[in-house]
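User: I'm putting together a teaching handout on how multi-component assemblies are represented. Below are the sequence lines for each component of a complex, exactly as they appear in our records. Could you produce the 3D structure of the whole assembly as structure tokens, so the students can see both representations side by side? Please keep the chain order the same as the input.
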Amino acid sequence: MTPDYISISDQPIDYTATTERVRSNECGAVVLFLGTVREMTAGRQTVALDYEAYPEMAQKTMQQLITEARTQWPVHAVAIEHRVGHLPLGEISVAIAVSSAHRKQAFEAGRFLIDRLKEIVPIWKKENWSDGTSEWEHREFKTN
Amino acid sequence: MTVQQIHVKLFARAKELVNSELISVTISEGMTVEQLRLAIAEQYPELQPLSNQLLIAIDNAYAGESQILNPEQEVACFPPVSGG
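Assistant: Of course. Below is the structure of the complete assembly, with chains in the same order as your input.
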């Protein structure tokens, strides 16, 4: 079995390398999800995002998510990479690659992994708005 | 009851509000996570804007409110996550 791969780094994400980590002749499907820095959020313009992580716990929590995914889907391999630091527009903040024998399993496991990552992995995002202000994104601010 | 100092790592907005990545909180021996939460609020009023939203982790895992603390553990305190 291909070992799973987890990385939290301030270096740009090479999504070709991320994808290659999970490819295998046993797999008919590879799904790659990329999260990228978006310009407009609810009518406000973003210039850049800053990401901060609690690396040891984030690493451990990502590993737990992979374990959970494996109990639900016959996944061959998973690679999760998250960027920290200052990210200008268009940069990749997160990449998740999943391989499996069939596409349905890879899509479902990939969706589970990114959804749960956003809920429990200790990484935080700060918006740098075009008006010069900045603020930490926060779940309470998302409910409006 | 013995009084102890426990070090707590802060992240994101919690770190900015206190302007430090590590705080020292005075607690009584055998204190729970719930009591730590109250002690942090009392000893670091700067964190008030995050009030009851702060999450507590012990040894790199989310802690339950009734979990007992000891000073050898790695304790962290942070706002809800927003990665991705």
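A couple of points students might notice: Chain A is about 35% helix and 40% strand. The interface with chain B takes residues 35, 51-54, 56-58, 60-61, 82, 93-94, 114, 117-126, 136-140 of chain A (CB under 8 Å).
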